[in-house]
Amino acid sequence: MSLVQPVPARGKSRLRVGLAWLLALGLSIPAAGCAPPPIHETLWVFGTRAHIELRGVDRVQGEAALAEAGHRLTLLHREWHAWEDSDLVRINAALARGESATATASIVHALNRAAPLVSDSDGLFDPTIGGLVALWGFHRSEFPILDPPPDASEVAAWLSERPRMSDVSIDGNRLSSRNPRAQLDLAAVAEGLAVAQVAKILADHDIRHALIGLGGDVLALGQAGDRPWRIAVRDPLGAAPDAALGWLNLHDGESLFSSGGYQRYGESPDGARWPHILDPRTGVPATRSAGVAVLHADPVTADAAATALFIAGPDGFAELTASMGLGCALLLDHEDRLYLTEAMAKRLRLMRTPTQTERVDRGPSCQQARD
């Protein structure tokens, strides 16, 4: 029996935060005597593009901050990479042998940040499923994957010894696990952690207005000139890759993160497609959601929650937004049904009308207390 549940191939775009450059930068070239022009930096880290835009700073100040941010992102890339030579690969090899390993400060910090989010998501987000990710062939940089999915017996064997975050012990800078199946993969929080660190570097350089984008996910600081940052949410069911489901304004300190199945996926000869986001309860790709977006003040929470919501699907949307304290979130399924919180509905300006819309009330704010 096949493990793959096909995803409708209605479009190849991924629901992701689109940096609405025409909206954000259309008035970016100032007249003489006005504020300095925006400064941009683009890097390739974590297998995706990082783009940082600075506003209201001179070039010397901006370039110094960008140089430090670029150095930091490059260092994190080397420490966190899940399959190339990295500190994380070294740690995973030790855990598989039943040995402890010394971890970098950034990896210890990442796991400490992840632990409460694993609990809040009831394990839908869990950084110890790296072995399952590798089993499905997603530890690679080129997509789509054309190799066949793993055999059902391999997935069943993983599930019989399913690792959990609680299996991993942190003692200072040493990691160990009582379950050798625990293999760390920080992909579901790497971008959130990274943009938070870039934001701190910018603050240290007294830069108050910036947009930090990583793989399409963004963190906004200050304003874009005299107005908030305007960000488009791309449509995973749109015919065009840049089709927008809607747009919203991001204010100082707000982040918008997404998850979708149309950028990294596997595909069989008969056209069945499976996304890279795996459900640790079943050991197979999550296929109920077309895309998810979460707006939150904490980019790490937004990052992990976007993954967890994608796995939870429409049936789990209400429960998970409550348990993870998500005031602003949306989910679109493959039947074009939109699920969103009331606060998100107030912020989002839709560019088209979904076939059905369901709302849940999580309070008036995007930052709510957990139930």
Description:
The structure is a single chain. The protein has 371 residues and is α+β, with helices and mostly antiparallel strands. It has one domain: ApbE-like domains (T-fold). 32% of the residues lie in helices and 25% in strands. It has nine helices and 20 strands. Helix 4 runs parallel beside helix 8 (299-323) and helix 7 (187-204) packs across helix 8 (299-323). The longest helix has 25 residues, at 299-323.
Count of helical regions: 9
**What is the CATH H-level superfamily?**
ApbE-like domains
Helix content: 25-40%
E-strand count: 20
Unreliable parts: 10-33
CATH class: Alpha Beta
Run of helices and strands: EHEEHHEHHHEEHEEEEEEEEEEHEEHEE
Q: Structural class of the secondary structure composition?
A: alpha+beta
CATH architecture: Roll
Strand content: 25-35%
What is the CATH third-level topology name? T-fold
Number of domains: 1
Mean pLDDT: 88
Short synopsis of the structure:
By secondary structure, the chain is α+β, with helices and mostly antiparallel strands. The protein is 32% helix and 25% strand.
How would you describe this structure in keywords?
20 strands; 9 helices; 371 residues; alpha+beta
SSE map:
Layout lengths: L16 E2 L2 H5 L13 E7 L2 E8 L3 H22 L6 H10 L4 E2 L2 H16 L9 H6 L16 H9 L7 E4 L2 E4 L9 H18 L4 E6 L2 E5 L7 E6 L9 E7 L4 E6 L4 E3 L5 E3 L2 E2 L4 E2 L3 E8 L2 H25 L4 E6 L3 E5 H6 L1 E2 L5 E5 L11
Helix pairs in contact: 2-7, 4-8, 7-8
